[in-house]
Amino acid sequence: MASEFQPRIYWSWIGALMVLIAAGLGCYLRQLDYGLGLTGMSRDVSWGLYIGQFTFAVGIAASAVMLVLPYYLHHAKAFAKVVLLGEFVAIASVAACMLFIFADMGQPARVLNVIRYASPSSVMFWDMVSLGGYLVLNSVMAAVTLASERNEVPPPAWLRPMIFLSIPWAISIHTVTAFLYCGLAGRPFWLTAILAPRFLASAFASGPALLILLLLVLRSAARVAVENEALHKLAIIVSYAMALNVFFILLELFTAIYSGIPGHEEHFRYLFLGIEGRHALAPWMWISAVLALASLLLLWSGRGLALAAAAAFASLWIDKGLGMVVGGFVPSPLGAVTEYTPTAPEIMITAGIWAAGALIATLLFRTAIAVRAYVGGNEVSL
Question: pLDDT digits over 170-198, tens only?
Fold first, then answer.
């Protein structure tokens, strides 16, 4: 099926993203002037929506390895056309990660302190190195691959070692992110050895789930031919990774409840039941749990792929983008229960950053479609 680019849909989408970016930028300028007091964060909950979205976006970026690894190491031909799109999603996600850090810093100049006073003993320093390096790797890989497709020549030989390097590098960016949490001894909720594997499992489910949704949108809106085999393989990856993520969460729950150690148990009690009548996150966490089980049932039954991918993505966004960060702060080490609710400006800044990431991904996807239409005589297959 030939690609049928529909300008009205495309430019409406671009316009909507630009409106969100402008609104987010306006709120950020207000935050820059007023300070982080504009947000719902406090002394007891010093990380909120920004860091939660940063953590989730790192997982989306790392998930590109689930296409690179089977295609380049195991020659899975089903991913031949979509591996480049996975790299584009990684580039957009890393860009969003960096913007979330800028928003959370309050004063963006503070980011320079990580460079000016670089310390190899700081996990934050290594997080910056891993994310920056991963952005460079994916940018070079995607640009060279797309240029090779455009010129109808094989990619240069020097690109292959870079591709192999990107595989452990992808795993490292989310492992280092997990170390930012589990290295804080005063936060029992994060003080677990399986936090990094749990992060990776959720990343390897959410990223491919997002790619499934994007491919289905391209099939519907741009009339791009998307091979069912690629969607089927991605669904298998999501089902296994989602099942592993649920298993890890159950392990955490068993350990916390069976041990009866208040420092571990109280965080889960707050997230799912509430403490002292304060249960702002409890409905969200139960929704996340229901969506996780629903996605697994749909994936295992082989029905409703779009609904299954959306359920998996939404479940992991709630668990990782809200519960994981806030749950580590409530209750505080002194037992104080201070709830956190994002403010309207905070939500708009977050939406603006996600819109910026979506704009980057849209432009990159549009470029890839144009190149493949040129090479294939207006025939685009993914």
Answer: 999 999 999 999 888 889 999 999 999 99
